[in-house]
Amino acid sequence: MYRTVLTPVIFLLLPLLAGGHDFIREAEKLKGLPTEQFLDRYPFREYIEVCDYDNIRDLEFQKNYLDRMGLDGRAFIYRLYEQYVAHAEMDFGNVECMKKLLYAGELMSRSKLYLHPDSALVYSAAGDLVLSAIADSLETLLEKGRLDKRDFGVQYIIRRLDENQYGVDVPLPNWEKLLMHARNGNFGYIWRKATGTYIREFCLFLAVAIPGFCLFLWLAIRFARKHKHRKVRMSAKKKDIAALFLLSCSLFSWTIPAGGPANSISEHYCNSALSGQVKTYELRERAAGSANSSLYGHSVWMDLSLDNIKAAYLPGQSHFTRVYERFSSWKAGKDILLSSSGAYAVQGYKDPLGFTMDEGAAVNNHWKEDMDALVVLDGHRLEVYNKEQRFVADSGQRFNLADGMDRAAFANWGENNGLTIFQTHLLAYDGQLTITEEGRNKVAKRKFLALASVSGKEYAVLVYAKGNYLYDAARDVFSLLKARPGCQVRAMVNLDTGVQDVLELHPALQACNGNAIKGFVASRYAMNLLAFYTH
Hints:
There is one protein chain. The protein is an alpha+beta fold. It contains 15 helices and 21 strands. An 8-stranded antiparallel sheet has the order 1-2-3-16-15-17-13-14, covered by helices on one side. A 5-stranded antiparallel sheet has the order 7-6-12-8-9, with helices on one face. The termini are far apart.
């Protein structure tokens, strides 16, 4: 009878004892140290070779054991997975290695389905650490050409990550983008690219290739003549070379907008709606020393102080047509003042790029480290936070979003409170420009959303500007906003003007001095939409 009772107990305890033996011995060696010193001195390098990462029962035993020693068991589990990921990243070029790690990450991230929330938090954070590392590595390896996106193993991992709401930004060549937009009937975007970006790239190619070819041809002719007529005047040679060089430089510079000192930008009133609560302005640009000005763009100022203007964000979850269908149904009974594309879309045009929640539901759990802005909609109120600073919730909770455990707690908080969140580039925060001159690598149309206060009134300001470098446009718009008497810029973020350059205004606001204020892409092609409205 005793044998019958003890046998299953022994079989249950054997894995626990076998997996925990070395752990207990090493833990006892370091007994009495504070948690940080314990973690710094614990031999993780040896332990990761034998640890069973998908056995939560063993991990829970270890966490509880350390808690009884007066240490932070959750910090130990998270550090263990940090070391595990750091060790595994050396083999991330191996698809089979990523598959093995993927399984452990999935198991950890789903632990909240069967563990108490307090216990599940560290495993959710560990799962996020693992799945984010795989997604980041895949993006890097695909961009560098070290992995082939057509490989079945790579496609399998991308699909599994997508099922876990970790969107991977898979590079798409231009011809694939062209075919996709042609199939979907998005010919406005194709026309804009053909007459804008591609013609500029073509001119750039011609500006470099033609002078280069002419220079080569001229040198070849001069070389042939030199052998035929030995006496060639060196001064003539120098003049010809100098002329060709200057021609090449002038053509090359014509294709690249200059990034330099800020020009003077001024606002000129156009029209208004909602009893003057929403106003549009034409922006004119004038170079220093010039009396002439040119169209720079437009701005829309929305006075939020009366609380009757509300904000909503509708992210995509499977395909952009669903966003428009949802928007069409949602806007019934509402007076839409402005609708615009919000977050960037992953290449493949499905999910928003970066961390995204839709009324508490996870859309994309993949944090982008180079995007510091979190746009948070709590109900119908919109706020912008800097993820590099400690996030303070209205309930008084604090989340350090540079810490993995706090990110998991923040995601839980967003889920429990039904928040809508998207991530994008932060351009200005707390009255200071946050973007640096490194943001001078690509010319494109620009669309910014700013939150500002003017003489005690709160405003949401959307600025839609001509093509420029991101840094130069952000600097110019930031200076324009601050030039308003009493204006304090609390935050300014970047909105997408790429494949989903959507901007549609209320009919009373659309025209401005004969120029239409609208994006190049119809809202039916949006992958996500940010809207301001009133009932």
